[in-house]
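Record 1 of the preview.
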Amino acid sequence: MLGIIAGLAFGLLDILLMLPMSFPDKRAALAGAFINRFSIGVVIGAVQLNWPGWAVGLLIGVLLSLADAIITKAYAPILGLGAVGGALIGFLVQRIGH
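->
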């Protein structure tokens, strides 16, 4: 449940960060970004590895962000936010959720 809540928050944060930007299809860009960030939270909440929570989150955040980064060629902002957000969610899920 914590992964779902964290994913919703991460998705909403990403939408807020993207609102000032312009895209050919803004609705699709915002929806895709939300789904990606929400998925990061859900997957981190569902995965159980014997690693530190931040490391699990970092790996999942980068892996799930990689396709969007390749498609848009905006590697640094997409992978960076995925890594930081994933690590934070992983840390929180390990500390609070288990």
